[in-house]
Amino acid sequence: MLTYKEAGVNIEEGYRSVDLIKKYAKETLSSYVLNGLGSFAGMVELPEGYKKPVLVSGTDGVGTKLEIAFKTKKYDTVGIDCVAMCVNDILCHGAKPLFFLDYIACGKLEAEVSSDLVKGVCDGCMQSEASLIGGETAEMPGFYKEGEYDIAGFAVGIVDKDKIINGSNINEGDVLIGIPSSGLHSNGFSLVRKLFPDINEKFNGEEIWKTLLTPTKIYVKPILALLDKFEIKGMAHVTGGGFIENVPRMFTKENQTAVIKKDSYPMPEIFNLIIEKGVDKDHMYNTFNMGIGYVLCVNKDDAQTVIGELKELGEEAYEIGYVRAGGEGVCLE
């Protein structure tokens, strides 16, 4: 008689995976979570203090950066990437993350690998103060290769309706502030993997894979602290598409241009190395974050105070440009 295990799905390994995961997930749970892992669904009550609460959601994955994790067998950072890609997005509208769910798919489940992936997710949840309230691990033999995993996630946050940031009050002359990235984050890796076929290539005295696997920075805590003190008119998470595609997404009005001064901040060496490998510099700004992971739009009179506040919060920040009239999207200077 053919069994599920003989067909390639090991239920017992799945049980073991869940047991390993539970100890990490438990640490992320806030007082708003009404049940633990193991139920058919996660339940979260809305925090008090919101007059007209609006739920803000976002979903994303890690992409082909995962291949670096497969090759190095280091799985505990890409889960941070997964959370970061989601929570940084919903943060752009002023939302405080409430909870997160993950989805992991593989060809053959290894409990230690899946628990490392979820450990990273839990680390990301702790950094963003989101609760990991559930998820799914799918073993699909014959569909995914053994040793390969995919991971995606889904975040939900909350913001008062009258505090939603949508760019409607952005005006000509407003200043753009950039907060540095931690490196490549999770974008452009289909190109990166072609440029660095040898992930043990030396870079700054160590194997380059260590730089490539640096997890995406999570901006939740410093940004939420700013929102309590300043009028932030717009925000952009610089992900796939770089400056060119992402910065204009903060605009609601037509005929506005984000002018970015390329030399206004120090660019990490990894981006210069990619340029040296033959990638056109202008193309870089349409693919990578170029060292700036998050952009804020503020009134000109508030710019230096906001930068000073960010530095007090332990974040470097730079005045990287301004808003002008015109429908060019982004203008690089």
Could you explain the architecture of this structure?
One of its GO terms (molecular function) is phosphoribosylamine-glycine ligase activity. It is found in: Cytoplasm. InterPro entries: PurM-like_C_dom, PurM-like_C_sf, PurM-like_N, PurM-like_N_sf, PurM_cligase. One of its GO terms (biological process) is adenine biosynthetic process. Residues 54-159 form the PurM-like N-terminal domain. The protein is an alpha+beta fold and 333 residues long. It is 31% helix and 24% strand. The protein contains eleven helices and twelve strands. It has helices at residues 11-26, 66-72, 78-91, 111-128, 189-195, 208-212, 220-227, 242-246, 269-276, 281-284, 303-312, and strands at residues 53-61, 96-106, 131-139, 149-160, 175-180, 202-203, 206-207, 234-237, 256-260, 292-298, 318-325, 329-332. The strands form three sheets. It has a six-stranded mixed β-sheet. It has a four-stranded mixed β-sheet with strand order 1-4-2-3, covered by helices on one side. The protein has a two-stranded antiparallel sheet with strand order 6-7. Helix 1 packs parallel to helix 4 and helix 3 (78-91) runs parallel beside helix 4. It starts with 10 loop residues before the first helix and ends with a strand.
Summarize the structure in short.
With 333 residues, the protein is an alpha+beta fold. It contains 11 helices and 12 strands. The strands form 3 sheets. The protein has a 6-stranded mixed β-sheet. A 4-stranded mixed β-sheet has the order 1-4-2-3, covered by helices on one side.
